[in-house]
Amino acid sequence: GTVLARPAMQAPDYRLTAAVLDAGVAEAAARGAPVRMVLITNPENPLGIVHTRAELEEVLEWCRARRVHLVSDEIYANCVFDDATEFVSILDVAEDKYGADDAFVRTHVHALFGMSKDFGLSGYRAGFLVSRNEELHAACGGIHVGHGVSGDTQLRIAELLTDDAWLDDFLDVARGHLRAGYKVVADALDGAGIPYVRATSGMFVWADFSAFLAAPTREAELALFEEVSARARFVMTPGSAMVAAKPGWFRICTGWHAAKDLKDALTRAVAVVTAKRSA
What we know:
Radius of gyration: 20 Å
CATH topology of the largest domain: Aspartate Aminotransferase, domain 2
Helix content: 40-55%
CATH architecture of the largest domain: 3-Layer(aba) Sandwich
Low-confidence stretches: none
Order of helices and strands: HEHEHHEEHHHHEHEEH
Number of strands: 7
CATH superfamily of the largest domain: Type I PLP-dependent aspartate aminotransferase-like (Major domain)
CATH class of the largest domain: Alpha Beta
Structural class: alpha/beta
Strand content: 5-15%
Distance between the termini: 48 Å
């Protein structure tokens, strides 16, 4: 099949809607590729936004009307750091709306999760597919032959995920770090007048550095990336690697360094790019 990646953000007020999916279908049709599955990320990477229940219901209705599989990648589910923002799984939305015994819910709605984001355990190489589709289960059975998760790793993951007290403490601390890191980046960008998407989740900020490009091209974007990396010793992910709608968008990761180190790095990076305004 053909994978059609939609731009990470097409407008400053981007939200996931049926109209966005319709545009994707039109583009796929022009390529002669009928849409069989919709894959979303919730919370979104790189935008750091969380899809609301209403948005998920709209997408669910769209997929159900067309008998299209809906897969929700929820690997950032526990990275919501804004207290006013609620994450809800597509599995809960589907069962609440249509019932657990609905044929479409049983066969066409699936969720993905893993240990590498919420828990920083990328070395475990462990992920989860949650689906009630028995044919899909059978098709995935062969994956274990060459990509199995060791018994020891499975045991440790089971112990971790069933320790409710530890989970509550760990995730509370983790969200505090994410909140602090986001504030550092947001304050630096606000101070420099650099536009960005207001995030409520995740470990990244999606920022618009297009005003600092020598030209509105991918080549100029990569040149700015290399300059900031070399002069500020700060690495941002170019938008071209994230299917950005236009050159100049960058993803800034906020969740790794301590707040002070992140602030120092942002100060250097902002100094490099803002110097171009007077150049």
